[in-house]
């Protein structure tokens, strides 16, 4: 006889609903796009921006690239991202 064991466990943490703090459809938003410095991260964000621009034609976009995938974002760049963005997408290429 063969016995199959299901390795999946029940989730240990309760599921918390995620709600947007902004309404990107009703309001004009600036979406920050932050590349991590890997070669494909900017190319990936090009495609993200195109898709978001179709879904949110009233949105504007602002781009940053931290240039070093192994380093944290600088305080100055983070301050700019926070000050100039309503929402942010971070891209991790490789």
What is the element layout, followed by pairings?
Layout (H helix, E strand, L loop, with lengths): L29 E6 L3 H17 L4 E6 L9 H10 L2 E5 L3
Parallel strand pairs: 1-2, 1-3
Largest sheet: spatial strand order: 2-1-3
Total count of strands: 3
Q: State the end-to-end distance.
A: 46 Å
Rg from C-alpha positions?
Answer: 18 Å
Classify the helix fraction into a percent range: 25-40%
Mean pLDDT: 90
N-to-C order of helices and strands: EHEHE
- Described by the principal axes of the CA atoms, the overall outline is extended
In terms of structural class, how would the helical and strand content be classed? alpha/beta
Percentage of residues in strands: 15-25%
Largest sheet, strands/sense/barrel: 3 strands, parallel
Low-confidence stretches: none
So how many helices? 2
State the assembly state of the protein chains. Answer: single chain
Care to describe what's here?
This protein has 94 residues and is α/β, with parallel strands linked by helices. The protein is built from two helices and three strands. A three-stranded parallel β-sheet has the order 2-1-3, sandwiched between helices. It is extended and about 60 Å long. It starts with 29 loop residues before the first strand and ends with a strand. The mean pLDDT is 90.
């Amino acid at each position: 006889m063969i016995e199959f064991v299901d390795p999946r466990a029940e989730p240990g943490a309760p599921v918390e609903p995620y709600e947007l703090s902004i309404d990107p459809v009703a309001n004009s938003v600036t979406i920050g796009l932050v590349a991590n410095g890997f070669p494909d991260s900017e190319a990936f964000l090009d495609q993200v921006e195109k898709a978001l621009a179709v879904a949110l034609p009233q949105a504007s976009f602002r781009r940053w690239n931290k240039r070093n995938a192994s380093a944290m974002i600088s305080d100055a760049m983070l301050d700019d991202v926070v000050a100039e963005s309503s929402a942010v997408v971070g891209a991790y290429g490789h």
